[in-house]
Write a structure and sequence with these properties.
It is built from no helices and eleven strands. The chain is 0% helix and 61% strand. By secondary structure, it is mostly beta strands. The strands form two sheets. Strands 2, 4, 5, 6, 9, 10 and 11 form a seven-stranded mixed β-sheet that branches. A four-stranded antiparallel β-sheet has the order 1-3-8-7, with no helix packed on it.
Length: 119
C-alpha cells in the first residue's frame, strides 16, 4: 500500500503564494504518477497537475504559468508551488498517487488540505 500525507494549505490573499507538500510512504516503488486534484464546494474534483516518475509534468489550463509541480525523490515528497493565487483557486486540494501493484492499477488519495484565497 501507499500512504500520502499532505501539508501546507491555509489562507492567503489574492496574488499570494502557497506551497503544498505530499509525502508518500509504503510501496512507493509502485507509483507511476503523482498529482494534485482540487474540489471546490459544489464542484467535481478536478486534476490540477501531475508528474510522472520520469518527470513529465501536466497542468490544467487554469493553473498553467502559476503552479509548479516538483518532486524530491530523496524525501519521497511531491510539491506544488502555487503563485499568483486567485479566489477561484479556493478548494480542498488532494494529493494523488497512481501506480500498479500485483498487476492491478490503483489510486491513492491524501486526506486533503484546504486552500482559501481571499479577494
Amino acid at each position: 500500500q501507499v500512504q500520502l500525507v499532505e501539508s501546507g494549505g491555509g489562507l492567503v490573499q489574492a496574488g499570494g503564494s502557497l506551497r503544498l507538500s505530499c509525502a508518500a510512504s509504503g510501496l512507493i516503488f509502485s507509483i507511476n504518477t503523482m498529482g494534485w486534484y482540487r474540489q471546490a464546494p459544489g464542484q467535481q474534483r478536478e486534476l490540477v497537475t501531475s508528474i510522472t516518475s520520469g518527470g513529465k509534468a501536466n497542468y490544467a489550463d487554469s493553473v498553467k504559468g502559476r503552479f509548479i509541480i516538483s518532486g524530491d525523490n530523496a524525501k519521497n515528497t511531491v510539491y506544488m508551488q502555487m503563485n499568483s493565487l486567485k479566489p477561484e483557486d479556493t478548494a480542498v486540494y488532494y494529493c494523488n498517487a497512481k501506480g500498479i501493484l500485483g498487476g492491478m492499477l490503483y489510486d491513492r488519495w491524501g486526506q486533503g488540505t484546504q486552500v482559501t484565497v481571499s479577494s
